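Before the break, one more example. Copy the sequence into your notebook; we will annotate it together after we see the structure.
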Amino acid sequence: ICSYCLTNFLFTPWKVVIVSLSIIISLFSLFLLLRKKSLSMNQKLGLIYSHIFFLAFPFIFYTFYKGCKALFATCNQASPILIMLILTSIVTLIMGTIIGQSLFLLRMKGRSIDIKDNLIVATIKKLAKRFNIKNPKIYFIDSAKPFAFTYLKSKIFISIGLIELLNKKEIEAVLLHEINHIQNKSSLLKFWTSFMRLLSPIAAFYSFDSHIYDEEIKADQFTIQEQRTNKHLLSAKQKIDEFYF
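Here is what the structure looks like once it is written out:
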């Protein structure tokens, strides 16, 4: 921020050690996430949180450290402005996750339509009870394109196009697939890997598609195991592929 404050910070050994450790932990967290393929979902999310936190910590620590006792007096007037910009950017990043999620939900809810006494709602309730999870909120999206996905912990979006395209057992296969994503917190992984790549200049150079692909494979295997056949899942995928391609 100013030469006095920066010099004071850099030539204070314990402060440099703290910053160095923070950067090392951040890099090590990313290394484990990229290298370890047998991690649980909670471990993956923990490593993502760790990478983001320890990457941001040095900037926050530098902003609040006590080494410059008269920060605003010894530095020029641009310093407090820069400090406020840094703090604002951090708050914006934090709030962006909440606001971004809310805006997405509002947009999707605006496209949803109300369907009462639907077979899908009854099926979801039955599956939620069967697998002892919170009953997911179902949103029927007014779109001819066939798609279904989970969002965060307990929301499933299904298009009308998907309902019209698939038969009962194929829809059940899709719902089982999404239920497994809810059980495994897969949508949280998708969100936080995207957010991490946006926030971290280091993570931006890496792809996390393999982690996402692993979750899709697990959901497919779960569906096949529960239906005791891969027939309905494969036919559902074939119909969807034929629609798009």
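The chain has a mean pLDDT of 81. The beta strands are 112-113, 137-141, 148-151, 155-159. Try to locate both features in your own notes.
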